[in-house]
Design brief:
The protein has 744 residues and is mostly helical. It contains 37 helices and no strands. It is 67% helix and 0% strand. The model has no long low-confidence stretch (mean pLDDT 86).
């Protein structure tokens, strides 16, 4: 009861937390959370389907209101603490272990450890930072697996059926943990060592009694690795590549002993907790002492393992759970607090055991009570930092080692919404044999040559109406639009000529005339694909998206290779919210090397935050037809993949082709991330001078002014942003934080 009560009290402020940092792309911008089926859809190709399915359940309960997400995370945390207590109590109260304990019972030592853990501030990042549920939920399932192993040995469960039920729970819990986060990969090793060191004291006995359980755990792993080696060996490097770009595997490895020492310092003195430590890579000289200390700790643990000492399992627990993130796989951040969520149990158990050795019970209970009180109050205070993105971020900026600390502030970019439509197409006509040379000249772009071939009286209009259409095309291509219209606007004009007249009307701004001509031609059931394409495209431009589908599909039926129709159908489906169907059409257009299809696919990747997938498409476009829209999209893709200087170059290129509020806002974000705060301020102010109601620029400028120590000036900008989005809890929280700082 004390574990539950104190855990809830320490984390009660977390229920008012908002979505921050990585919550935005994975929760707020993840449209797949709106669907519970298929259960892996929201995982977006990651190997964590169970994590995202639980987030989808939260979405079904409260939408994008954070309270249910925080309630679930708190429930996971308290449940993990109770299971830890159960594992420790049953293990410490066994005959093998109880006799070696000091002056307190195993139950008291288990309770002390669980109490310290449930209120420790170092667990807050895995609990209150919503998307880090991956860490806490995987930890819950790992502890559940160990608890099931312990229960399978308890008296009263010796019946084969009961034992097998607990064994099944061991296996299922591990697989569920693996479907939540990859940190569970070392659990089978942990289970074997826990069984042999703590439960039986003999690995031979462990194997004899539970070999079927461990075969059920290990055989699928072995078969999976063998299958991967045979069928997809190229995927193996990706499993251990990591996401670090600024340093290599060895740099990461030699830096980790220093990181682990910092973890242990924060265990004893949890001050300076941050969302972004920006821990620097250590040189060999700097890493030497921590490496020696790490070797010493590993050596002591190995000695205990060889001698089958139960106490060695504390070191094994700590090292095994940290191993996936603190060894040879180089991750972008060297030090992240949530990695210590479950390993924290080991040092806290050691501290509890040291206190338990004190002979005076009043001193023991006094130290424990004081520690729980201080840790709980610190945790509650830390949870209040999550009430605002600004509060959480600003708290860390003074201490982080990260030179790009502003990069971690969630700045608001503006990206083009909706697919880009291809424009209207002119129509030729199947020409008679004597007109084909002129038609071929037009196809090759030789308008002057076509006009020369069509000149004179050899092609009178009465006998050659097709010549009038071709002559109109040649004149249009030569820039003589009025003369082209004269050729098309004849009483005996062919359907192709009337279709081209509709295009001329459209481009001159007379959309009603264009629609009338195209609709009339469509009613005549003409077989000219451009008629249906132009009608569908015109309706799409006029906002009649559902109506636009049928004529575009008819155009494709007449000409299956018409990539522009595929692209425009994709843009229509995207406008209707049918992203999956839009992707199919864009990919078909892209397969025909259609540039607008490539642009739309790249833009969609950016809007979906698949930045690495967007970059090759946008790079290609910037090579063949660079423009402001493509440059802006590539700037965002570069920014969110860490290429800040390249993002700035793209936005400067785009601004050279026309300054807009959106471009100034986006370049301001990049300059702020690069640390040029004055330059960023000027750009945000420039954006607001062009568009005074620009909510993103107001929000960004408000954040910037708070960062510059000017909360009073920030309030009005944050207030403007909050008015524009009254349902945005994050903006409201940032406004409240600025108002709080201004009262200091």
């Amino acid at each position: 009861m004390a574990i539950v009560l104190l855990g809830i009290l320490a984390y009660l402020p977390s229920l008012e937390g908002v979505f921050v940092f990585d919550d935005l792309p994975w929760i707020l911008d993840n449209e797949d959370l709106q669907h519970l089926w298929p259960p892996w859809a929201a995982a977006r190709g990651t190997s964590r389907p169970l994590l995202f399915f639980t987030l989808a359940l939260n979405y079904a309960i409260s939408g994008l209101q954070p309270w249910s997400y925080h309630v679930a995370n708190l429930g996971i945390h308290v449940a993990t603490a109770l299971l830890l207590f159960g594992v420790l109590r049953r293990s410490l109260c066994s005959e093998r272990i109880a006799s070696s304990l000091p002056h307190i019972s195993g139950q008291t030592l288990a309770g002390s450890t669980a109490l310290l853990w449930v209120v420790h501030p170092l667990t807050t990042q895995a609990v209150t930072y919503v998307i880090q549920r991956g860490e806490s939920l995987a930890s819950l399932l790992m502890v559940l697996s160990i608890y099931a192993l312990v229960r399978s040995r308890c008296r009263g469960t010796s019946a084969p059926t009961s034992e097998r039920v607990w064994w099944a729970l061991v296996v299922v819990s591990w697989w569920a943990a693996m479907a939540t986060k990859e940190i569970a990969v070392t659990l089978p090793v942990l289970l074997v060592l826990f069984d042999g060191l703590v439960l039986t004291g003999c690995f031979e006995t462990t194997w004899r009694e539970r070999r079927h359980l461990y075969l059920a755990l290990w055989l699928p792993i072995g078969l999976g690795i063998i299958s991967l080696l045979i069928l997809r060996p190229q995927h193996l490097p990706g499993l251990v590549r990591g996401d670090a770009e600024a340093f290599g595997r060895i740099d990461y490895l030699i830096s980790q002993p220093g990181v682990i020492l910092q973890y242990l310092r924060m265990t004893i003195w949890p001050r300076g907790l941050q969302v972004d430590h920006g821990w620097p890579v250590a040189s060999l000289t700097q890493a030497l002492v921590p490496i020696l200390m790490a070797f010493l700790a590993i050596g002591v643990t190995l000695v205990g393992l060889v001698r089958r000492r139960p106490w060695s399992f504390g070191g094994i627990w700590f090292l095994c759970i940290l191993a996936p993130t603190s060894s040879l796989v180089p991750l972008r951040d060297l030090l992240v607090e949530h990695r210590m969520y479950l390993p924290l149990v080991a040092p806290l158990f050691g501290l509890s055991w040291l206190v338990a050795n004190l002979r005076d019970s009043r001193v023991r209970w006094g130290i424990l009570g004081l520690a729980v009180c201080i840790l709980g109050l610190t945790t509650a205070a830390r949870n209040r930092d999550y009430h605002s993105e600004l509060a959480l971020w600003a708290q860390a900026t003074g201490e982080t080692h990260n030179a790009r600390r502003f990069y971690n502030l969630q700045l608001e970019f503006v990206v083009d919404e909706g697919g880009v439509l291809d424009g209207p197409l002119l129509s030729a006509v199947e020409a008679a044999a004597d007109l084909r040379p002129a038609a071929r000249a037009l196809q090759s772009g030789d308008a002057a040559g076509a006009l020369q071939l069509l000149a004179g009286s050899q092609y009178p209009v009465a006998e050659y109406p097709a010549a009038a259409n071709l002559r109109g095309l040649a004149l249009w291509m030569s820039g003589h639009t009025d003369q082209a219209v004269t050729q098309w606007n004849r009483p005996d004009a062919l359907p192709a000529a009337r279709a081209n007249l509709a295009v001329a009307s459209w481009l001159s701004g007379d959309l009603m005339q264009a629609e009338r001509l195209l609709a009339g031609l469509s009613a005549e059931a003409t077989n000219i694909p451009e008629v249906y394409y132009n009608l569908g495209t015109l309706w799409a431009r006029l906002g009649r998206l559902s109506d636009a589908r049928q004529p575009l599909q008819r155009a494709l039926a007449l000409r299956p290779t018409m990539a522009a129709a595929m692209n425009n159908l994709g843009a229509i489906e995207e406008g209707l919210g049918l992203t999956g169907t839009a992707i199919v059409w864009y990919d078909q257009a892209l397969a025909r090397d259609h540039e607008t299809g490539r642009l739309n696919r790249g833009l969609l990747h950016v809007r979906q935050r698949y930045y690495k997938l967007a970059l090759p498409l946008l790079d290609r476009l910037m090579e063949v037809r660079p423009d402001a829209r493509t440059a802006n999209a590539r700037a965002l893709a570069r920014y969110f993949t860490g290429k800040l200087e390249g993002a700035a170059q793209d936005l400067q290129f785009a601004r050279q082709r026309g300054v807009t509020a959106a471009l100034d806002n986006n370049l301001g974000c990049v300059q702020m991330a690069l640390g040029d705060l004055e330059g960023a301020r000027r750009l945000f102010e420039s954006a607001l001078s062009q568009a005074p109601a620009h909510s993103a620029a107001h929000h960004n400028l408000g954040k910037l002014l708070v960062s510059m120590g000017q909360p009073e000036r920030a309030i009005e900008h944050l207030r403007q942003a909050a008015r524009a989005r009254p349902d945005d809890a994050g903006t409201a929280a940032n406004l409240a934080e600025a108002e709080r700082l201004s009262r200091r």
